[in-house]
Specification:
- This protein is about 30% helix and about 30% strand.
- By secondary structure, it is an alpha+beta fold.
- Strands 31, 32, 37, 38, 39, 40, 41, 43 and 46 form a nine-stranded antiparallel β-sheet that branches. A five-stranded mixed β-sheet has the order 17-24-23-19-20, with no helix packed on it. Strands 33-34-42-45-44 form a five-stranded antiparallel β-sheet, with no helix packed on it.
- Strand 23 and strand 24 form a beta hairpin.
Length: about 800
Amino acid sequence: MKLKMIPPSNVKGNQMKTYLETHLARVLREAASLEEAHVIDFQSQTHHVRLTLQVAAGRKDERRLRSITSKWVERGHVGNISLVQPTPAILLTPLTSFSHQGITVHPTSQIHASEDFALSCTTSFANSDAVSAASFRWFKDDLFINVTAPTSGKSAHVIEDDAARDQYVSQLNIKNASPLDQGTFTCQAIESGHQRCYTRRVEVRAPPRVWIEPMSLTVRKGENFTIKCFSASTNPNDAKYTYSWTKNKELLPIKTDTEHYEVLFPMGSILQVSTISKSTMFSCLVQDSAVWAEQSILVNVIDSELIKTCAGERHLKLLWPETAPGTESLQECPVGYAGVARRACNLRETGHPVWYLPDFAGCHSDRMEALNLQFQKVRLGYAATRPLDVLRGYRRYLNGNRTLLPGEGYTVLQLVNDVVHYINNSISGDVYDTVFDIVEGILQRKLSLINETQVMLLQEVVKRQSLAFQSTFHRTLNTIDVTLTRPDKTGFHVPQSGLRYPGWFSYKLHLALPRHYFAAAAGVGAASPNKSATLAAVVYRNLSAFLPLRSAIRLKDGIEMDYEVISNIVGCWLTFNGSELRENLTDILYTMEFQHPGKNASQDAWNVQCAVADYASYGYAWNTQTCITRLLEATRTRCICPRSGTYAVLLTMKPSFIDSEEAPSRQLVILVGCASCSLLNAIAVVILVCYWLRRRSCLVFLKLQCCLSLLASMLVFIYALWDDLPPALFLTVMSILESFLLTGLSSQLSNLLIIYSELVQLPRMRSVKQTVVLIITGAPMIAVLVITWPI
C-alpha cells in the first residue's frame, strides 16, 4: 500500500523510516493477522513523506485491510500521524508487483572471506523519461562507499532490467571479501528530488582466531606438559567449532600412549603429553563445515646434562620462561597491546646462552590498532576518515608516548608505509611534514628500531617520500634534515644559501651536471639547467646509533674487514624526468665533505674511508672501492662517488694479510713454480708430438692430452696471479681451470681402463679404446658446463 503522510516533529530524519514502519505495523496487527510488514520504498520531501508499505497476510485478511485503509482516508490520520489532505485513496497492490524491488545478494549462499560477491539494487520509476536523471549511491553502516578508490576492490554500475519495463538495477561488485565488508548496506536512489532507500544485511564468514598457550615451549627429555588451544569468532552467531590436534602434520587420535586431548567448554581444547623424547611440532586445528584455522607450536626437547638454556626471567613486564639456545620465546604482548612479542636465546662465542633484547615489532597498541582499523576502512572504500588524519593520529601517538617498546617503531613505520603507498602520487606538503615528524619521533627514541630490517624500512620510507615530491622542499628537525633542490647554472649544492640548517649539520655536497642535462634557452645562446632534474639529500644525525658499533665488510676475495661509522649518514638520489638514476654514472660525480671525529692513539692501524650503499645496514652492504677518499684534515674528509645511494665515512681496520711482507714473496714463489711446470710440460708435449707422428696409439694420445691439460692449467694460474681479475671473469676462469684439471685426471683414468680391458681379455670390439677415451674425457667436461651454466 502507498501512503502520503505528514511526519511527526519529534522524530529525527534518519529515524523516520523505522518509526513509521513500526507504527503502521502495530496499527495493522490490531485488526488483522500479519506475517510481515515493512517499508520497501521511502521518499522524504520538504513537508511530507511518501512510502510504500509491503504487507504479508493471508487472503482472508484482505477485506479487513481494505476496510482499515478506508477508515484512515475518512479520518485523515493513522493513529497520531496525519495524512496529507486531501487524502487520495490508499491503493492495495498484490504483493507480486513489488517482490522484485529491493537488494539481492549474489551468491545467495553464505559469503566467506576472500570470496567475491555482488549486491543488486532493483527499483522502478513512474516513467522512463525521469530515469535518465536518476542516480544511485551505496552506503554501508551509514558510511558512503567510495567505489573509485583503487584499493577498495569495488565497482558499481547501473543496468536496465530487461525483465520488467521502467526498472533499473544498480549493481555493487565486491572482490576479495573481508570481515570489514560485513554490515548493513543501503542503496539510495534519487530522482527529481524523490528518494528511495533499500537496505540489506550482509554477513561475511571469516575463519576463527586461534591461539595456543603457551606460544612456545622448551622441556627436558621425558618431561610431561600441557598445551591449551582457544578460539574466538568474529560472528557471535557462528556454530560451535570442532577441535583436533596434529603431531608433525599427522592427525592425532583422541588418546594414544603418550598424548591425550579433550574439549574445553565453551571454546577450546587441551592436549596432555607425557614422556616426550624429541622436539615435536603440535598443531591445533579448529573448524566447522565451512571455515577452518590452525595454530602450531614447536616443543623443543633438550638434554639438560648436555645443553645449557637461557634461564627464565621477568623483563619489560613479561615473564620469559626457560628457552633453548637457537630458538625464540613467544609471549603475548603487554597489557594495552595485541599481538606476539619475541625474544631470542642464542649462544655467545664462549658457548654460554644469553637472552637478546625482546622484539615488540609484532605488538600493536590499542590506539594504533584503532587507527589502523580506520585506515583499512578507507582502503576498502568506507570513507570514515582521510589518510592524512590517520598519519596525524600516528604522530599524536608518538608525541604522547615518551618511550617505545623495543622494536615498536617498526610497527609504526609499517603502518605509515601502507598509508603512503595508498596515497601514492597525491602526496601534499602536509603529508610530507607529518611523515618526517613520525620519522623524527622514532629516531629520537632509543631502541625503537632493533634490527637490520627495521632500520632499512625507515630509510625506504624516507627515500620514497623524498622522491615522491616533485618540487623544492626543505625540512630540518633534531635528527634529520631533508632537502629537495633543483640545479642552478653549475649544478646542485647543499647546503643552499638562504635556508636555515641546524647546528649539528656539517655536510656539504656539490654535484656538477654535464652538458646534456642543460637545455638552450629560447632565443639565447647560453644554456640553462634542465628543471626536470631534482636532487634529494637526506642527512641523518643519529642513524648510526641504531647500527652495530662495529661490523665487518666482506672484500672481494672473501676476507672480512672491521669498520665503524664515524660520520653522519647521508642519502642522495638524483631524478631526471621523474625517474631515479640508479646506475653508476661516468659523467656525474657526487663531491661531498663530511665532518667526523679524528682517530685516537689506539686507532693507528685504522684507515678513514668513504663508503656507499643502497641503504645503511648491519651486514656487508658498504662498498669502499667505488668512492675516492681524500683526507682534508684529521676531522674532515672529502668523498667523490659516481653513484647515488647512502654515504658515510668509515673507520676501517686493515686485514692483517695486507700488511704482511710475505704475501708478495709467496705469490712470486707460486708464479715461479707454475712457470717451471709449464716449461716442463711444454717440453713433454714436443717430445710426445714427435713420437705420435711416428707411432699413433691411444696410450700416447692420453699422455699427450694429460700434458696439454697441465700446461693449459698452469697458464691459467699464471694469468690469474699476474694481476687482479675483474669480478666478471671469476666464473669463466674458474670453469676453464676446472675443465683442464679434470681432463688431465681423466687421462690417467682412461689409461687404467685401457690396461684393464687388455688384462681381462674382453671380447674384441671395434674402437673400444677410443670409446673409453671419449667417455672418460667428455663426462667431466659436460659436468662442468652443466654446473657452471645450467640451462
